[in-house]
Each structure stands twice: as structure tokens, then as C-alpha cells.
Design the sequence.
């Protein structure tokens, strides 16, 4: 792979053109990652109802920006990627058929600031038009107790509790899943960097088919959000980072946010993080109603 030349991006044909990453299949998890980068008109993708027409978007945290791994592009070039992107692509890769996805690290020409700025302005549309959004929280292993939180959230979300009822069943489930130290595990899980990113607001709120993934484990966003809501109602104690993350998750799809102006959104999410000053605006533009 190291003998291949570095991939060079072709300019986009128009402001409405986006790049889509075609992730080639592989049965072996450790097999080299092979992709094809294609151009597509974003408005045409609105009508993409099948996997060969549409695409899926990914919401994730870059982590260390240093490119430490390589992928093969168009069977002729190589492209450096971060460790987190490499791991994420391996978990998203299918065994038998390609997957069309949008990943900012690869679908945006990071060296072309003019193009990148224009594409970032349209980021909300990218996530809104996607057939599905994958939330990538990072890798984990079978022994990681945080993985049990997925099973716990599914069980909690399935509870049929009347608003006036007590929430002991929530605590009972947490006790069975984690034992007596569930608060530490919940704090650790919700302290992951993804939950502090401002970009996640529009990346999740603008799409109705969202899946939360942690390694090979996944849960539908609707179940995840309901589980978080019941955790909050059960008055489970959290650290401040986890509390902020829970508040952000529960704010998605709220009536006030659906009708919010940009200034209101900026105030509501002032504590969330962005790596660039201009992203504090761009990350919320897709949601603003003014």
C-alpha cells in the first residue's frame, strides 16, 4: 500500500455537489480498507431510496487528528486517516456488499479551504438527506462494562411507566446490569468526547433514522433517547460532564428547538465544544428557523 501515490481530490462540479465514500466489502475485519470516492448532486440524493442511490452519514469525534493509518482509494491511490476513522470504517464495513457513506474527514477536501467552507455551510443538508445516520462513539471490547449500558438502556426504554409512577424499575435494571457501581459506568460512558461536540446537535436532530454504535454494539436513537430520559427521571446521580451530555440528548427534537432562531440555539448550546470559532455558527445553521 505504501508504494501507491497519494490520493488527490477532484474539484466539485457545483456548490450542490458532494462526495460519497463507497466502502468496499471484506469478510476479514483486518483486511485493508478499500474505498471509491464518487461525486453526486445533493438534491438528486433526496430521492435516493435504495442503497445504490442514497447514502448514510456518520457522526463521530475525530480524536487525535494525526493520520496514522492508510486506506486504498480507487484501487490506485492511498489516503492517510486517523486511528479513529480507520477503526470506525472497519466496523461499518459489510462482509458482502458495498456501503455508501458520508464521512467529513474523507468527503471534504481538508486542504481546500474555500470548498471546505462552502461544504460546511451545507452540512445540515448532508445529514438531513442521508438514509441513516450512524453515531460512532468509539471502540470497545466485550469485557468493557460500558457495553452493558446498551443492554440496560434497551430494557429501561421498554418500560411502560406512567408519568406519575415511581421509577424504581429503572434503578432495578441498572442494579442487575452493573451491580452497585452503575453511576461510575454511566459517568464514564457519557463523558465520551462525542457528547460534548456542538456538531452532534444537527447531525442527529435533522434525521429520523439514527443508530448509536459502540464497537459492534448498537441501539436505535429513539430507544437511546428514551432510556436517557428515564435515567434522568429516576434521579440517577451523574458527574457534571454526564449531566451536560444527558441534557443535550434530551433537548433534541424538543418543540422549542424545532422553532428556535440561531441566537436561541447559540444560547442553548453555548457550553458545547467546537474546534474552530466559525463552527460555533456553522454547526447550528441547519437547525435555525430564521
Sequence:
Amino acid at each position: 500500500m505504501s508504494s501507491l501515490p497519494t490520493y488527490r481530490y477532484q474539484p466539485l462540479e457545483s456548490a450542490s455537489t458532494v462526495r460519497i465514500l463507497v466502502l468496499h466489502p471484506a469478510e476479514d475485519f483486518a483486511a485493508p480498507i478499500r474505498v471509491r470516492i464518487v461525486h453526486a448532486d445533493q438534491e438528486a440524493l433526496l430521492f435516493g431510496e435504495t442503497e445504490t442511490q442514497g447514502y448514510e452519514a456518520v457522526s463521530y469525534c475525530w480524536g487525535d487528528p494525526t493520520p496514522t493509518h492508510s486506506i486504498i482509494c480507487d484501487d490506485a491511490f492511498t489516503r492517510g486517516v486517523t486511528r479513529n476513522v480507520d477503526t470506525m470504517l472497519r466496523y461499518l464495513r459489510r462482509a458482502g456488499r458495498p456501503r455508501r457513506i458520508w464521512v467529513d474527514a474523507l468527503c471534504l477536501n481538508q486542504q481546500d479551504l474555500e470548498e471546505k467552507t462552502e461544504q460546511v455551510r451545507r452540512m445540515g443538508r448532508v445529514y438531513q438527506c442521508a438514509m441513516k445516520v450512524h453515531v460512532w462513539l468509539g471502540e470497545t471490547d466485550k469485557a468493557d462494562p460500558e457495553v452493558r449500558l446498551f443492554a440496560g438502556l434497551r430494557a429501561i426504554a421498554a418500560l411502560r411507566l406512567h408519568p406519575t409512577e415511581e421509577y424504581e424499575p429503572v434503578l432495578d435494571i441498572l442494579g442487575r446490569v452493573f451491580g452497585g457501581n452503575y453511576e461510575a459506568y454511566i459517568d464514564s460512558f457519557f463523558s465520551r468526547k462525542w457528547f460534548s461536540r456542538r456538531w452532534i446537535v444537527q447531525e442527529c436532530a435533522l434525521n429520523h433514522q439514527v443508530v448509536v454504535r459502540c464497537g459492534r454494539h448498537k441501539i436505535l436513537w429513539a430507544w437511546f433517547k428514551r432510556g436517557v430520559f428515564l435515567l434522568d427521571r429516576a434521579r440517577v446521580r451523574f458527574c457534571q460532564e454526564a449531566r451536560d451530555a444527558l441534557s443535550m440528548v434530551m433537548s433534541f427534537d424538543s418543540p422549542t428547538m424545532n422553532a428556535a432562531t440561531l441566537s436561541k440555539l447559540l444560547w442553548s448550546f453555548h457550553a458545547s465544544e467546537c474546534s474552530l470559532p466559525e463552527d460555533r455558527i456553522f454547526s447550528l445553521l441547519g437547525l435555525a428557523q430564521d
In short: Strands lie at 17-23, 34-41, 56-59, 69-73, 77-81, 99-102, 132-136, 210-214, 217-220. The chain has a mean pLDDT of 80.
